Amino acid sequence: MIIQQVDRPEGLFRHLFADNIGFLVTFVGQQARLTDPDARPNELSDTRQRDWRYPDEAEAAGEYQIDQAQRERDSYFGVHLFRESGNRLASNAAATVRALWLDEDDGSYPGVGPDPTAIVRSSASRRHLYWRLSRPVEVEWAVAMNRRLAVWAGGDTGKAGLSTILRAPGTANYKRHPSVDLVAGYLTDAGSWDPEVLDQAIPEITAPSRPCETKPYTGPALDLAPFLESEHVEVRRELSDSMGVKYAIVCPWVDQHTGGDRTGTRIGQREGGGLWFRCDHAHCEGRTWREFRNEIRRRSPERRRVKRPGFTGPAWEVTINRG
After folding, report:
1. 73, 28 in Cβ contact below 8 A?
2. Other residues' Cβ atoms within 10 Å of the Cβ of residue 276
3. CA–CA separation, 104 vs 205, rounded Å?
4. Which of 78, 126, 200, 270 has its CA 20 to 30 A from that of 48?
5. Whether 185 contacts 191, CB under 8 Å
6. Tens digits of per-residue pLDDT, 262-312?
7. How far apart, in Å, are the Cα atoms of 266 and each of 121, 203, 235, 247, 252?
8. Which domain-ending residue is among 201, 229, 250?
9. 235 vs 248: CA distance, rounded Å
């Protein structure tokens, strides 16, 4: 249920960024066909990108975007903060975010899903949806969740990443000029979502995340479920997977996740026996099944009980020289 209209960009900024600190990016441009009839649809000309210190310059950034819209220019903002000014490359993204985002595009977010906390109507038929989180999460986990949201909604998966810019409320959409769509924003009564709740509610993407997971398996036979139990791995729940079995687990490197986040880690076994491990957190990027197996075996209580026999070597005579 909508509880508040957001009339200016900075109202949405505060909702998405909370008390985080960093650089807010704005991007503006004019529809090229307004001056060049042969221009491609939605081609922007005279584009300008600016950086603003957040939260100190949030209101100034909002005023700038509204002013640009009044000059018949399309106006966008980066949906997360950046560490340094000067670029909006993914590598410059702030380490954590406080919200997930979805460009619904031609799709439709399922009504059975967790309600978004903010909605922006970029036109009469298009929406951008946001889910404010109860605590910061690593950007890698957020991007993975954004992709899951986009696939579930049939939305734009290309907008799930860390270079995404979307429209802000209080601006205008000139794509269909001379018809102009005013961009409107709303907050809902959904409150803030715990990351664990969203992780459980949003379906996993069933396609294999890495091509090597489908190669014929030639390793030793292993039944995954009993193995996880015997190694004291905390299984959060079983996940559907048309290519085998898959579980959401607590990562053995969870103490390295921002805030000790227990979400975003999966393990599975293909029908042919192949085993795989995947964690969406930055500290676990590239870690494999073998590294996972070695780590949990290293931490296993049974393997930490090392019996050390008494010393049976020759006696040593020690003389202390006090002179």
Report:
1. yes
2. 21
3. 17
4. 126
5. no
6. 778 889 888 888 888 988 876 787 888 889 988 988 877 655 444 445 555
7. 34, 13, 9, 6, 11
8. 201
9. 6
How sure is the predictor about 91, in pLDDT bands with cuts at 50, 70 and 90? Answer: confident
Looking up residue 44, the CATH number of its domain turns out to be 3.30.70.1790
Q: Is 200 exposed, middle or buried (0-12, 13-18, 19+ CB in 10 A)?
A: middle
Task: Tell whether 233 and 97 lie within a shared domain.
Answer: no
For residue range 101-135, list pLDDT tens digits in order.
Answer: 999 999 999 999 999 999 999 999 999 999 999 99
Q: Which residue has the tokens 């985080």?
A: 20
Q: Which residue range is the domain that position 221 belongs to?
A: 211-304
Cβ pair 119, 188 in contact under 8 A: yes
97 and 57 share one domain:
yes
Same domain, 100 and 25: yes
Looking at the structure, tell me whether residues 167 and 290 fall in a common domain.
no
Residue 194: per-residue pLDDT: 96
Q: Report the domain count for the chain.
A: 2
114 with 259, same domain?
A: no
pTM score: 0.73
Q: How many whole angstroms separate alpha carbon 180 and alpha carbon 72?
A: 9
